[in-house]
Recover the amino acids of this structure.
């Protein structure tokens, strides 16, 4: 819903800035979705008249105008075309600024040359003035505008205004009105609310009372619990006065005529949508001889033409306002064409009623007809306000359209609603909100919202010690949302200020500990490794001194071991895994793939008193690399060092480790026949390789044994788990294969690096797909075949350009690698 | 040319017969060429259309087109069928043969049980904490109100590290392998102000010879909760929640008064569930617990008047053994793949 600051200020004072008010409203639960500053007094902008208009000598789309600003004539270069000589337009004089959009610096107009022609000011469009209307070109002013008059005077505006676009939650129909919002501001600021003073104008003394003009027959009091009617006679339909039109237009409501505008104004002002009928277009009731309003359900299939000119087919569920002969309005949704206010209307019937929300919603939905009126009724209107709204409308109609009010009101209100009362226990407020408010403070907050205390209930005998007595509050009829105690507690919270409620940490919490996230990282690593087909092992942390020496590291001995099998703390996971392999193979589980993630203990030189504990990850493979299958070349394949390396590479990838390098260790170790160290930058992460055959024999293992061990602590510090989506390539790749014959000692990594160093254009990736020896390759040489993928991000590559680039690459490789290329 | 119309039907029938008789794609192609090819019989008839009179032409043309459409449809259908037949393997596949498996590894059963325990505790706001396995006797015993003459401190029960190889000369305090995860309680409380809600899974060491129910290393989970107004009733509620999460909603628990030096009052926890009844027991001892001893709070600088709390601990192997009906604790550390595969 839109409201303007100036409108709000008619009902409540607010001293803060427009932005502060927006913040306050939002924190009260009335979210400000938009805020538009309307131009204020438009300094330096005057009404001007176009005296002449000629083509710009240097620009087709521009014109050079002579414009009178009331004192002198100015030359203005203009880009708009929607005006003619003699038109009056707003003109901003040099040195002044246009109203700035929210958050932007204002634009100041200077004397300057536009395409070589001087311009002394600017003629303005509505957008440039912050007036919002989307008009192509300049704002053309009324003919009666006075040349030289300040533009703000022309607009009839002394000061600027702010339009707030508010999101009203469905539980608060009372906030769909300026008064409703003002009431909230009053409650939260403590400034008094000034309701519009309705002073009923003098009635047509001696003329007929309203009851002698119209009767109301309420056929369905369930769907329409209250219907009021007033009559104003002798009105003159015409345009609304400026203040009314401007007020409506600022909040986006089109001005129609004085009477209709008043009904819209009252709806926006106090939330109750009245409707105005041309009384003379209503039929009289045959028996009473009076014009009669009948509130009844439509007949199934009944046709009715609404104000918008649409003929609508109704169902028996829909509520109609009718006269004895015909339907005249779709209750609460839209009036009928047959009784609408027109230029000749002189007697106005003012309807102000209350309809059942569910019924209005159903009708509006079924007919796909949503109006400001249906929007308000379907959320629940204030039954108590019907007559007041009717008086307000009558007052304003007489003010703007003249006429005399008929004495009295017809108020069909068969079952007068009793004001609700709700009991509130102060301690309940504090229990729920976590505050310590006293009963007086609570009553104060609720009182600001118009909830009056109606006395305390006697204190229950079993009330907890110190608990304040519950108070009972009378709920004003506009607060249809307040139904039980907790609703009142919410009101207290809103007015106290939700942002002022202290935040207490989760009760009894919380376990923060650095290890908590490490635990998750360990679990993630384990899941990846299990997903790669490895079984998790958990070994003994106490092992034998003999097994520990395989690692060439001094283990940490126990002072009081139970036996020689378990007399030191493990300095590595590998001896334990070798034991596990032996255990399995000796039981004919010959194909084993294990990992272990656990701690090792490293002795430290003096003066350290305790060993260092370090988490490590180890892998051990032996036997067949693939699950049993009954055909195919891989069925007998045994684990080799590239199975192990493949597992490590996949694990590193999945775990977020990049840029690892592998360096062959020149010598065998006490454990490994051939192995490589794994580095991450300057850090050695671990090593992997094939276990010495004599050692595998010692452990009764038949097949090759491959093992790896990594420093997991180090690995955790080097993870990069950030993931950023790279858009999928839209264009096709071109693949070129390259078979290089190189010396045996040429490392794959060297080849790839060399290819990358050539910086060949559009080369996306390089993948090795074959290594081959013999046949046409001389001894001491090997053939390495690479698949090169070329792709440009923004265009499709041609074969020819890829061929050229590829050929150039081949020439460079021949030189740098002393390679020959197999064609 | 009165006979023109009569020629269409027999020719079409012959072509259809030849197509359906084709048993492979080559034969079908031959039939197509024979009728619909440039020199085919049907094409030849088509060419005669031009010679017909103006009256005859529309009917004959329509009949020819209908026949041709039918032939082309039959050809497409037959071709699809023959292609399908050609794609079938020579011998029908035996779908009962085992598939080419991609095997997934498994997490160790102790890891799985630990994860379940951690998950239950995290639901109620606990964080995982950790501490060293190699401890000093202050954190393992003294700070936990275990007096120097307490039997638990006997070397019969505790592994100590040899002073040699660690530090030459005067050793300030004996270095040992922690006998319980409770030592982490002290390390956490030393560094962090209350409230505290932690859970500590980890290895502990007891100097017991390995047998079906003992292993020199085994694993525990410790829970510690410190806050204002923490009560025994909170402890019972938490224990009940965690064990029902772990052992099923039918699990009941029972507290029995007991003694631990670092809690007061102390309790042993028994539980009862369909699992225990399967084992022939109504109640089975599963954990120890109690309200943190004021002396322990004082040792870490917490004011016991302001703070209260509880701790409990239990063996992970024991939970796993009950849950999976495992009868020998040593199985956990042998890493036999036939064992690991089962969980």
């Amino acid at each position: 819903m839109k409201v303007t600051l100036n409108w709000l200020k008619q009902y409540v004072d607010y001293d803060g800035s427009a932005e502060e008010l927006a913040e306050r409203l939002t924190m009260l639960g009335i979210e400000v979705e938009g805020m538009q500053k309307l131009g204020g007094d438009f300094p330096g902008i005057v009404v001007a008249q176009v005296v002449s208009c000629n083509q710009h000598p240097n620009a087709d789309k521009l014109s050079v105008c002579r414009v009178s600003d009331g004192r002198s004539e100015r030359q203005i270069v203009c880009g708009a075309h929607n005006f003619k000589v003699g038109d009056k337009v707003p003109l901003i004089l040099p040195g002044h600024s246009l109203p700035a959009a929210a958050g932007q610096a204002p634009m100041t107009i200077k004397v300057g040359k536009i395409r070589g022609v001087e311009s002394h000011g600017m003629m303005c469009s509505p957008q440039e003035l912050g007036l919002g209307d989307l008009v192509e070109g300049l704002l053309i002013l009324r003919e009666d505008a006075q040349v030289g008059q300040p533009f703000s005077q022309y607009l009839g505006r002394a000061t600027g205004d702010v339009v707030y676009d508010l999101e009203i939650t469905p539980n608060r129909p009372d906030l769909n009105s300026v008064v409703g919002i003002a009431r909230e501001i009053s409650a939260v600021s403590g400034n008094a609310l000034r309701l519009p003073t309705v002073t009923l104008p003098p009635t047509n003394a001696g003329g007929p009372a309203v009851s002698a003009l119209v009767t109301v027959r309420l056929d369905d009091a369930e769907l329409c619990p209250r219907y009021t009617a007033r009559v104003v006679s002798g009105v003159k339909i015409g345009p609304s006065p400026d203040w009314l039109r401007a007020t409506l237009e600022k909040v986006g409501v089109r001005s129609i005529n004085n009477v209709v505008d008043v009904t819209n104004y009252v709806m926006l002002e106090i939330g109750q949508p009245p409707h105005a009928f041309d009384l003379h277009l209503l039929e009289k009731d045959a028996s009473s001889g009076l014009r009669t309003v009948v509130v009844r359900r439509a007949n199934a299939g009944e046709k009715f033409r609404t104000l918008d000119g649409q003929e609508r087919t109704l169902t028996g569920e829909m509520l109609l306002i009718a006269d004895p002969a015909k339907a005249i309005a779709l209750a609460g949704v839209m009036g009928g064409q047959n009784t609408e206010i027109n230029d000749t209307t002189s007697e106005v019937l003012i309807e102000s009623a209350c309809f059942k929300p569910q019924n209005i919603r159903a009708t509006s939905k079924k007919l796909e007809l949503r109006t400001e009126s249906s929007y308000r009724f379907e959320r629940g209107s204030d039954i108590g306000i019907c007559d007041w709204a009717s008086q307000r409308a009558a007052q304003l109609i007489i003010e703007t359209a003249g006429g005399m009010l008929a004495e009295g009101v017809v108020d069909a209100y068969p079952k007068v609603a009793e004001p609700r009362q709700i009991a509130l226990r102060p301690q309940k407020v504090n229990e729920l909100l976590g505050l310590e408010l006293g009963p007086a403070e609570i009553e104060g907050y609720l009182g600001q919202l118009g909830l009056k205390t109606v006395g305390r209930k006697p204190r229950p005998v079993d009330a907890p010690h110190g608990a304040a007595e519950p108070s009972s509050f009378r709920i004003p009829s506009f607060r249809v949302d307040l139904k039980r105690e907790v609703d009142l507690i919410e009101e207290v919270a809103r007015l106290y200020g939700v942002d002022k409620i202290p935040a207490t940490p989760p009760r009894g919490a919380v376990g923060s500990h650095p290890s908590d996230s490490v635990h998750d990282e360990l679990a993630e690593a384990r899941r990846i490794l299990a997903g790669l087909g490895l079984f998790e092992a958990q070994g003994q942390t106490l092992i034998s001194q003999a097994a520990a020496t395989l690692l060439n590291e001094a283990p940490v001995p126990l002072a009081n071991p139970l036996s020689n099998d378990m007399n030191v703390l493990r300095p590595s996971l590998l001896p334990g895994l070798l034991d596990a392999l032996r255990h399995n193979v000796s039981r004919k589980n010959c194909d084993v793939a294990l990992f272990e993630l656990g701690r090792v203990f490293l002795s430290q030189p003096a003066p350290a008193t305790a060993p260092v504990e370090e988490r490590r990850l180890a892998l051990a493979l032996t036997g067949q690399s693939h699950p049993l299958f009954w055909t195919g070349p891989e069925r007998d394949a045994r684990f080799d060092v590239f199975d192990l390396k493949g597992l490590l590479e996949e694990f590193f990838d999945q775990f977020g480790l990049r840029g690892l390098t592998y360096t062959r260790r020149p010598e065998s170790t006490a454990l490994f026949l051939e192995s490589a160290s794994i580095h991450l930058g300057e850090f050695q992460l671990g090593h992997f390789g094939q276990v010495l055959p004599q050692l595998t024999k010692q452990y009764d293992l038949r097949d090759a044994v491959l093992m790896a061990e990594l420093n997991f602590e180090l690995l955790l510090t080097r993870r990069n788990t950030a993931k950023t989506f790279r858009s999928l390539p839209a264009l096709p790749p071109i693949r070129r294969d390259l078979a290089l014959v190189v010396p045996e000692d040429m490392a794959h990594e060297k080849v790839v690096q060399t290819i990358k160093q050539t910086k060949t254009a559009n080369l996306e990736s390089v993948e090795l797909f074959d290594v081959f020896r013999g046949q046409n390759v001389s001894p001491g040489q090997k053939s390495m075949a690479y698949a090169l993928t070329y792709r440009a991000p923004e265009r499709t590559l041609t074969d020819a350009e890829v061929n050229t680039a590829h050929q150039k690459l081949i020439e460079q490789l021949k030189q740098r690698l002393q390679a020959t290329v197999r064609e | 040319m009165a006979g023109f119309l009569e020629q269409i039907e027999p020719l079409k029938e012959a072509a259809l017969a030849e197509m359906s008789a084709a048993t492979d794609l080559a034969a079908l192609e031959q039939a197509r060429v024979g009728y619909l090819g440039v020199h085919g019989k049907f094409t030849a008839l088509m060419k005669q259309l031009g010679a017909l009179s103006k009256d005859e032409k529309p009917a004959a043309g329509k009949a020819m087109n209908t026949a041709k459409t039918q032939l082309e449809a039959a050809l497409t259908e037959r071709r699809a069928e023959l292609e399908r037949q050609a794609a079938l393997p020579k011998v029908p596949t035996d779908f009962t043969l085992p598939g080419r498996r991609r095997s997934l590894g498994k997490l160790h059963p102790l890891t799985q049980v630990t994860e379940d325990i951690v998950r239950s505790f995290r639901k109620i706001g606990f964080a995982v904490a950790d501490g060293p396995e190699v401890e000093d006797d202050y954190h393992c015993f003294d700070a936990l109100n275990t007096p120097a003459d307490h039997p638990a401190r006997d070397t019969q029960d505790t592994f100590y590290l040899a002073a040699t190889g660690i530090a030459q000369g005067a050793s300030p305090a004996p270095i040992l392998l922690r006998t319980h995860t409770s030592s982490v309680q002290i390390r956490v409380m030393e560094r962090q102000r209350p409230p505290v809600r932690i859970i500590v899974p980890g290895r502990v060491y007891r100097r017991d010879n390995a047998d079906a129910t003992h292993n020199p290393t085994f694993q525990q989970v410790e829970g510690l909760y410190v806050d204002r107004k923490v009560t025994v009733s909170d402890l019972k509620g938490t224990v009940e929640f965690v064990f029902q999460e772990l052992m099923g909603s039918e699990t009941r628990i029972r507290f029995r008064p007991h003694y631990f030096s670092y809690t007061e009052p102390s309790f042993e926890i028994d539980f009862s569930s369909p699992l225990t009844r399967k084992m022939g027991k109504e109640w089975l001892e599963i954990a120890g617990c109690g309200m943190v001893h004021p002396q322990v709070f004082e040792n870490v600088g917490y004011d016991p008047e302001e703070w209260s709390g509880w701790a409990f601990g239990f063996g992970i192997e024991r939970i796993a053994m009950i849950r999976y009906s495992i009868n020998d604790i040593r199985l956990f550390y042998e890493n036999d793949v036939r064992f690991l595969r089962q969980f």
User: Anything to note?
Assistant: Residues 56-87 of chain B form the longest helix (32 residues). Residues 165-169 of chain B have pLDDT under 50 and may be disordered.
